Amino acid sequence: GISKRYLNLITNRIPRLYNPITEEILLLPKGGTYHLSSHLGGNCPICSSELFIYQLSDARKYPLCAWCYNHPQPELWGPAPYPISSSTFSSSSLCFEAPLGDLHPINYCRSICSLKNESELYYENGEYHKTTQEEEENDNGKGKGKGKGKGSNMYKIPSSTGGVLILEPSTSTSNNTSNSIIRFISTRSEISFTLPKAVSKIVLLN
Known about the structure:
alpha+beta; 4 helices
């Protein structure tokens, strides 16, 4: 990476990479394991750090760059569970999604589509309501409304995104991928799609 040195992997209560020469510490996401893989296509295009895989207990695997994880640019890469500092990186700070933003190059180059929630969540008189965009237009007086239009005591909660579907990286140490399972996973949820075993190779077109 930037330091051009090998770092020590420490996997105790606060998993991290440690540079014994500069004493720099790079925090790692908690809740999974870490694997090196030759299938990620080289180093990070942002910082040239070696890429590895963050694998969760349910077998979902995400590409990870430790330097970018510690030096986030959410305005460019989108939101993600980036660490703030080692002091706030408590035992409850577990990461069960993609550690980097959906628009980070190592996620973006593997993505095929967005999984945004098309409905909005509304809060009115102590209750939550899910309303489609068409119903929202009706509520605003563009159709036959339901009495929830402008002027009512109703607040719209921004809908959360389901992330994007990305090609899951392989942890296989062999260059023979004919027996590998090809799967697409969501960066922000447990959604996944496994392709038939007859499919041995795919090409992502950006």
